[in-house]
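re: ur question from earlier - yeah i can do the single chain one, its not a big deal. heres the input i used so u can compare w yours
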Amino acid sequence: MPAAARRRPLRGGPLLLAGCLAVASACAVHVRRLPDGPGAPAPDAAAAWREATAECRDVHNATALLRVAVGRSPSVAVGINVSAAGGLRLDGAQMFLLAGTADHAELLLPSDRRLVVAPAADIVNALVGVKLAPAQLLAVLTGCVAVSPVMLDAARFDGRILVRTADSRVLIARSDGRWQVLAGDAAGVDIDYRRFDGYWPGEWRATPADALAGPVLVVSVDSLTVNDPKIEHNPQVYQLVRPPDTRPMTIEELRVRVRGGGA
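and the output i got, formated as tokens:
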């Protein structure tokens, strides 16, 4: 897990992370959209796609420290462990702790010992406004966007190539002498990479694809580690130890709380 020494208690309430969800217009941040239309033939697309995803397509798990904000709201430090097999752990220091799998995850709010049990993607959506399951989150975090990296077809738009896979569309272009992912969509979420540190994303943005002016998740990535064998073979990473006096909270109550309605 990310080093605890790099985290610090956060002020402003247990779910400050999504503070701009209720006032998205005041926190507007834009996401690059994919090109429309059929485009032109791209006979070099297969080789370009292999180069753009050479590192991320073989990632099985990742650990990182993230700085996460919605729109222009203050960012929050979140530790993440995520695996292609569906494990997810998000540690928001004093604010929240999520652990589980794609089908069954648990979110603990330590301040009042409330516990939400739901699919991981639903909890992530309630917290930050975008719905990403663990495998999709891993693909976005490591720069592939696509969970299934096999290219089905592609089209050229000037110097860029739009690649379609079984679960995503991904826009790639040449940068610093190599093909690199610029943006994409993953399960109804638009992704926009703003900065890379070497081969790995250093900053990205995400917003629901069907949202005309919805909130934008802004993520900065620090201390990314991939394919850690200690994580790969340790299911306890994705298990939550419940305090004995937790009280249940529904996913809808969580949504209300995130938006400032209490609960």
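The chain has one domain: 41-240. not sure if urs matches, ping me
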